[in-house]
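Annotated sample (chain length 805).
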Amino acid sequence: MLKNYLKIALRNLINNKVFTLTNIVGLTSALAVSLLLVMTALFELSYDQFHAKKDSVYQVYLSSQTPRGLESGTSQPVPLAPALKADVPGIKHAVRTLSDDVLAIYKEKEINLDAEFSDPAFFNIFTFPAVKGNAENPLSDKNNVAISEEGAQKLFGSTDNVIGKSISLQLGKQEQLFTISTILEDPPPNNSMDFDIVIPFENHPEYISNMDRWDSQFHLVYVELEEGITPEQFEKNTRDFTSLHYKGSIENAIRDGAVANADGLYKQFHLLSIADMHFTSFASGMAEVKRTFPYMILGIAFVIIFIVCANFINMNIALSERRLKEIGMRKTLGAVKKQLFFQFWMESLLVFMVSTILGLVLGNLLLEPFKTLFNTRATLDYVTQPKILLIFGLSIFCVTLIAGGYPALLMSRLGTLRALKGKLDFGKNRLRNSLIVLQFTIAILLISGTLVLHGQIEFMRNKDLGYNKEQVISIPLNGKKDSYRVVELLRDELKGNIDILNISGADNNLGLGRDGSSMNSMMGFDYQGRGVVTNALTVDYDYAKTLDLEVVAGRTFSRDFAADSLSLVINETMAKQLGEEDPLSIRIPMDDGATTYSVIGVVKDFNFQDISKQVNPLTLFMNNDWDLYYAYVKIAPENIAGSFEAVEKAWSKIEPQAEFLGSFLDENLDRTFRREKTMATIVTSGSILGILLSCIGLFAISMLVVGQRTKEIGVRKVLGASISSVAILLTKDFLKLVALAFIISTPIAWYFLNEWLQNYASHVVLSPLFFVAAGLTACLIAFATVGSRTLKAASANPVKSLRDE
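Output written by the structure step:
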C-alpha cells in the first residue's frame, strides 16, 4: 500500500512540474536562509551561557539618585570588592576585572595583547579551563600570569614549553617581569570577556594610587553568592554598607536636590546576572535586558518559513481542483477519508524532504559568505542540538499535515458525483486569501523596516558631528615609547609634508578604531556649593585645530601660555551646567582645594561619544602626567591615499615594533553602528526573500485562478471585452488583498519603528513616505507578478477556450 501511495505521489509531482519546482525552489531557499539566521540568533542568545556558575554569579552595579534623575554605573572603586567580601553576608567570592591592552615583550618580539586584570578568584567564578600549568590557581602569585592558547601562539609561536617562561609587560610607563604559570583554553566566541592574557589586578598602573579611594571608579566587580542567597537579599544586605562608604556623596546629592527612591535610598547596589550582560543597557537609569537583535533575527527566519509554507499550502489546495475526478473515482472505488489524507500528506512530505536536504546543502555552501557578510562567528553546531532538531521535525510534521490534510478534508466532504464533475470553487477560498494577506502584511512590514533602517544609518553617517571626520586619521599609541614623545616625533617626521596639516593626541578615540577599544572618563567636583559631573578628556596641543572644533568663546591650549596645564576648555553643555554668564571667569578648585583650574575656552558641542546619545558635559585637560592613547593626524583632501601611506611610513620609523592601526574617523564612526548595519542587511535580505517567495506563490496561484476562469475570459472576449479590461478584472482581486495587507501593516510598522527610533537621541523623521513607498513597492511587485500571467490569458484566442462548448 505504501509503495502505491509513493508511486502516485511521484507521478502527480512530475505531472505538475511547474508547481513542484516552484515549491522545491522556494522551500530550499527559505530553509537555507532560515537555517543561517537561526544559527546566528542562537549564537547571540548563547552569550556567556557556558559558565558553570552562571546562575549564581552577578555583575555589581550602583544606582544613584541625582539632581539629574536616576543614574546607574558598572564602574566601581578599587576598595569595593574586598570590602563587600568582608562586610556583606552571603558573598562567596568578589572579583575585580579590568579589560585593557598591554604590550608584551619576549626576547626581540613585541606584541599587543588583550589583557584582563583580575583577582585570583576570577578562575573560581568564571569557566576558563586550563590546558597546561597551574589549573587550581593560575594567579597564585603577584608575578604570575595566565595566557590563552592564541596569546601563546602570538607571543611564542607555539604552546609548547611555555610554562615557566618570563615575559615583560609594559604597564603604564614601567616594564614588569612576569612568569607564565598557566595556558588557558581560548575563550569561546560567545564570551563577553575576550582576552589573551590574565594579569593579577594589583599590577594595574592605577591600583596603588586608588587602592583606598572610593571616588575613583574604573573597573568592574563580580560576585558569587552563597547558596540560598538571592539578589534581593544581597541588595538589602548592602544598604547599611552603602550608607557608610558613600556617605559623603549621598550628602552632596541631598544638598543638590536629589530625591530619594521609593525605599528612601539615594544609592543602592544591584546585581545583574552574567547571562544577561551581553544584552543589557542602562539608558533608563536601571539595567534593562533586551534581546531585541537575536529575537528579531529569529522573527525574520520565522516569517520567511511562514511565507514559503503559506505558498506551499495555498498551491496544494489550489492544485487539488485538478484532481477532483481522481478523488471522485477513488471514492467510487471505496476510498475513505484516511486514505485520501494519507495520499496528500505523502506528496507534501516528499516535497519537504527533498527541499530539506537541498536546503542543508545550500546552507553549508552559503555559510562562509554569510559569516563574512554578517560579521558573526556562529557555526552550524548551534542548530544541530537535539532540542532544535526536535522543534524542526515537529514543524515539518505540522506544515505537511496542514498542506496535505486540509485539501484531503475538503475533498472527503464532497459528494462522489460532484467530484466526478470537477465542480469545486476554490476562487473564493478564505484560507488562501487570508494567507496571501498575511504574507504581504509581513512583506510590507519588512520593506518599511528596511527603508527606515537605511534612512537612520544614512542620517547618522551624514550627521554633522561637530568635528572633521573625513580628513582626520586616529592612531592607537600601542608602542613602548612615551605617548607625548610619539606625538612629537610624528610632528617632526611629517613636518615637511605639505599634505599633513595638523597633529595632536588625546586619551580617547572618536568612534571605534581598529584596535576595538573605547573608553570614557568621568569626574565630579563641587562648584559653588553643588556637585558637577563631567566627562574628562586629556588632550595635547592643537587638538581643536586638528579636529576643526569650533571655538565659541576664549581660546584653546597654546604653547605660548605656560600655565595651560592648569587650564580647562569646556563644551557648551558643560558651560550651561556651570551656569555662568561669562564661562571664561570660572575658577574650579580640585584636589580638595589644593589646585585651581581656570576655564580659558568654550568649544561648540561635538559628538565625542556614541552618536546615539545626547552630547554630555565635557572638560578638556592638558596634563602631561596623564597619558595619551591616540594620535590624530589631519591631512589635506587632495591626496588622501598618499598622505595615509606617509603617516604609516612615519609610524614604522617611530614605533617599528608596534602594529600600525590607523583609520579615518569616518571609518571609526561606521564601526559604532555596525549592529545597525547588520540589522539593516538582515532585514533587507529578509524583505527581498520574503517578497520573492510571496511573488512565487502569487504567480502560481494566479496561474491556477486564471486556469479556472479560462472559459469566462473567452466569453467576455467574444462579447467585446478588451484585453486591458480582462487583465484588470483578473488582477484587481489580488491587488485588493495587497491593499488590505498595507492597511493592516502600516500602523503596526509605525508603532514598532517609532519605538526603535526612541533609542537614538537624534534620529530620522518617521515620515509617512516610508510606509507609502513600502505599500507601493508591494503593489507594483504584485501587479507585475500577476499581470504578466493575466495579460497572457487575456491575449489568448477565445476560440481555444470555447472550442469544447
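Annotation: The chain has four domains: 1-49+293-424, 57-274, 433-462+672-805, 479-660.
Annotation: Residues 1-49+293-424 form one domain.
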